[in-house]
Amino acid sequence: MDIKDIKALVKIITDSDISEFEMENEIERIHIRRGAEKEYVQVSAPTLTAAAPLPAAAPAAAPATAPAEAVDDGCETITSPIVGTFYRKSSPEADPYVEVGSTVEAGQTVCLVEAMKLFNEIEADYKCKIVEILKDDASPVEYGEPLFKVKRL
Amino acid sequence: MDIKDIKALVKIITDSDISEFEMENEIERIHIRRGAEKEYVQVSAPTLTAAAPLPAAAPAAAPATAPAEAVDDGCETITSPIVGTFYRKSSPEADPYVEVGSTVEAGQTVCLVEAMKLFNEIEADYKCKIVEILKDDASPVEYGEPLFKVKRL
Amino acid sequence: MFHKILIANRGEIALRIIRACKELGIRTVAVHSTADADALHTKIADESICIGKAPSAESYLNMKAIISAAEVTDAQAIHPGYGFLAENAEFAEVCENCGLTFIGPSAESIRIMGDKIAGRQSVTKAGVPILPGTKDNVPSVEEAQRIAAEIGFPVIIKATAGGGGKGMKVVHSPVALPNLFATARAEARASFGNADVYIEKFCEQPRHVEVQILGDKHGNVIHLGERDCSIQRRHQKLIEEAPCPVLSPALRKQLCECAVNAAKAIGYYSAGTMEFLLDKNNNFYFMEMNTRVQVEHPVTEMITGVDIIKEQIRIAYGEPLRYQQKDIKIRGHAIECRINAEDPVKFTPCPGKVDGYHPPGGLGVRIDSAIYDQYTILPYYDSMVAKLIVHADTREEAIKRMARALDEFIIGGVKTTIEFHQRIMANKDFIEGDVDTGFLERLKI
Amino acid sequence: MFHKILIANRGEIALRIIRACKELGIRTVAVHSTADADALHTKIADESICIGKAPSAESYLNMKAIISAAEVTDAQAIHPGYGFLAENAEFAEVCENCGLTFIGPSAESIRIMGDKIAGRQSVTKAGVPILPGTKDNVPSVEEAQRIAAEIGFPVIIKATAGGGGKGMKVVHSPVALPNLFATARAEARASFGNADVYIEKFCEQPRHVEVQILGDKHGNVIHLGERDCSIQRRHQKLIEEAPCPVLSPALRKQLCECAVNAAKAIGYYSAGTMEFLLDKNNNFYFMEMNTRVQVEHPVTEMITGVDIIKEQIRIAYGEPLRYQQKDIKIRGHAIECRINAEDPVKFTPCPGKVDGYHPPGGLGVRIDSAIYDQYTILPYYDSMVAKLIVHADTREEAIKRMARALDEFIIGGVKTTIEFHQRIMANKDFIEGDVDTGFLERLKI
């Protein structure tokens, strides 16, 4: 690899967010590690959590990641489309809409979220099985907050 | 890889944010690592020059690197041990102590630095040849500021 | 006192309100959009709750989500800050209907002052001078010509539902009137869904002078002196100062008393601002009343020592004002520079990631900002990233203090208007206080 | 006015002085050690010059290098800040001999007040109460026993050349005296090269109250009220406030007038501080005078609006005071927390690289600090990295403001005393103002 190639390579790497690069073939071996940039990012990260290690901070961050609904174990989540109070039953006497293990059809109501005295029925977008119920009955939920962990059927 | 390539390579790396570079092939192996100190300076540099792009900032920084007197081209420097005014002659009429090309013995006076009306003779620590005179006659110098570029003999 | 307040805003004003609450021992709830999960107001509040997507309409303007957030967090009151829902009478009403205290004036006051015509009528009754012109909608060009001839050119056409320059047209001659009248109505319809316009005398090279009002729910109203906000670009204030450098004590007294009377006339409570035009001959004319706390409130806080946000909260809780007019003493001079993430010459917004942040410090320097190093300034919201406020014994010293503070201020990674403010602080006319609302246009910056 | 001033100091006070100079339109020269090439004072000054190696003795205490730096940069005056050469009479003399104005009092004033005995004698002449005891060196144990018996135990033995607690011993009984007397003399010799000690009445659980003085070269002297600095650890002040929460107006008047008289008696000019002990029965006793600007001067600036550094410069230039006593009005309450790079419990210094820096902001918050993100706090110098000062209408509000500002303050990468200050702001006795110089020892922190 001549100097021109190296220059090009360095540019490619520094323009990217790559922190380390290694390449080897029968004739040569190259190893590049970056410091500053990476280090700098780390600098700011602690700053913020340091700013306020609030219980709120965690849930607050959730919606940001919510769009990517897929969870590693192949499960997905049903999230709340509004801020409000999560209810598992249509009335105190009624049975819960779903239990862990229930299979629900697309469009079937899985819970209510009450906002300003209005009870909004939350429906499943697709046929799935309820793997986990993530919120307690009658607990507050924020926009985009995961309510159920489900497996698509 | 000849010296020109290496110089170019060094420039490429120092212009980037790369902290470590390694290259190896059947005929040669190159390993470049950049010091934390340097990196730190770079991290802060933008911030600070942004703060005040002072003419002073540059010379001010000099002493920090001065301890490492060796300059890439094999030359060394004679630095000022005190703050004061640099004089090349013992008196306005006299000839300069040294000129470019002069060979000086260890202990020979190469200039004066005046501080509080006292003229301090600055001597060479070793036999050397004056390669370059870095300050004008009667100009102010700060502690550790390079005065002459010399080649050890 | 309230035990918990929800702040229905973001950025520096949300932080400003949270700080006041912390100092009053009141718990705080921040609401935020998905894009603001890392915003400082979200981090610093005792609780924070996500209310919707990045676009304001789906979050900070989403009344239902905000009220619901207040209910699930058990907040007792909502502070709207400025902008967003701050001057929305319906929101104030909804809050009260839901048993939440709206920290601001009554929905009624907001409604009256939100309507230019009703506003002018009410202050006129209180004997406050307004620019000669119609108070009512001008339906036709013929009518417009008649009125213009009567009050004399130049005149200005304004949207009755308007604000912020939209639907405003200056007319210098009868010939130009028909076209501009039509344009104004079109702009008014486009911007406010209401084509109604009115016509008034156009006052040339006026200063923008406004009076800060504080009123409680027991009929007490005082003023905290005036602010001069003549440094504007396209009707957007960029630099504000207090007191106004050209007011005589007599004129100041007259102006401020006018403002207090107008506020009393409509039974106004909470913080509010009466905006006036001051012409070269020291005539002042009422423009409009802002029924909220303003961006530039800090300059008044610096010279009076009154914490306007805390007073808003106490007033909303029903406490009587803690100050009488005689308690208000003006001390020194204060200036505020609004630092925007914009090109310092073209003023085009420049969102992006802050890379290196170091605010100035020392005597008489105040920073109200919600950004931090590595924070990403979002394109969805206002481009103001910091307010730099200085206070000093004299205006001259305040300008020098502002200049040195601007020199120290580092906001890396994005373009900001710091450089613009540095130019103004070095401008001879500004230094001499010889400015008006046309200052920047003439300066060609 | 001076056209150029050299600042013979580093850290936040160098920055403080540079800021004042910039606002006065005076060019600045920063001097720095090789280790401080990246320090903020070096970067922000108009010029900077390296004067020697990292150890203070080779740089910031190197008179020759500093004078020489002033000469090569053509500076007209030198501001020594605090510490280093600030109270070195010889340095003040050398400056004047070299035609450089020393921005501080006369060498003579420094000399008199630098000598405990001469200082006590001079203020006693001015009718200022001092603690009963000797004014002169006590040569023998016998003599010490006689004096102790006469003024009554407990007594305190102090080095005549001393300060900062070194060579100080409290003696509660005749039995303990001989050993402690010997120890005190040994410590005095070790610390100051002078074994002389004197004995005075030991005042139990006193408050540390000090009066800020301003005098000009025309014989005018005024006071800027007092400060309470009772929160100390091993005689090092950690928190200061103004005004003192327990002084009655009458006592305040008496104390401050005493200080003014003492300053007048020695023809004192520039800023200075008279330190007193205030006992439980409201008796006050002169301790010593600091002939320099003090770390805690900002709290006085916040409540009086007087820029003490600018006044020092004007006074040094020969201008008469711009204030008469009647112009000085105390407004609200101010508190300063000294934030040190130390373990918040053990107070062991913790130098290192700052990794993440975000200072608090908003109404009534002032930061004087010379650190920045990624700056390396050096082991060679003082561990104080920031002064956080708040101002509010009342002491109660000021404490709440300080608490919320401390909560916002982020200094990453090193241990700081922020956490310590948070504990104090939440301490019941501190909140009630019930403290004395023994407060921290009793708190076991």
Description of the molecule:
- The complex is a heterotetramer, with 2 copies of chain A (153 residues) and 2 copies of chain C (445 residues).
- By secondary structure, chain A is an alpha+beta fold.
- Chain A contains 3 helices and 10 strands; from the N terminus they run H-E-E-H-H-E-E-E-E-E-E-E-E.
- In chain A, the strands form 3 sheets. Chain A has a 4-stranded antiparallel sheet, with no helix packed on it. Chain A has a 4-stranded antiparallel sheet with strand order 7-6-4-9, with no helix packed on it. Chain A has a two-stranded antiparallel sheet with strand order 1-2.
- In chain A, strand 1 and strand 2 (28-34) form a beta hairpin.
- Chain C has 445 residues and is of the alpha+beta class.
- Helix content of chain C is 34%, strand content 25%.
- Chain C contains 15 helices and 20 strands.
- An 8-stranded antiparallel sheet of chain C has the order 13-12-9-10-11-14-19-17, sandwiched between helices. A 5-stranded parallel sheet of chain C has the order 3-2-1-4-5, with helices on both faces.
- Chains in contact: A-B, A-C, A-D, B-C, B-D, C-D.
- The interface between C and D is large, with 37 and 38 residues.
Determine the number of helices of chain C (DSSP H or I, runs of at least 4 residues).
15
C-alpha end-to-end distance of chain C: 47 Å
Percentage of residues assigned to helices of chain C: 25-40%
Structural class of chain C: alpha+beta
Oligomer: heterotetramer
Net shape of chain A: elongated
In DSSP terms (H or I, runs of 4 or more residues), the helix count of chain A works out at 3
Sheet/helix structural class of chain A: alpha+beta
Provide a quick synopsis of the model.
Chain A is α+β, with helices and mostly antiparallel strands and 153 residues long. Chain A is built from 3 helices and 10 strands, in the order αββααββββββββ. Chain C has an 8-stranded antiparallel sheet with strand order 13-12-9-10-11-14-19-17, sandwiched between helices.
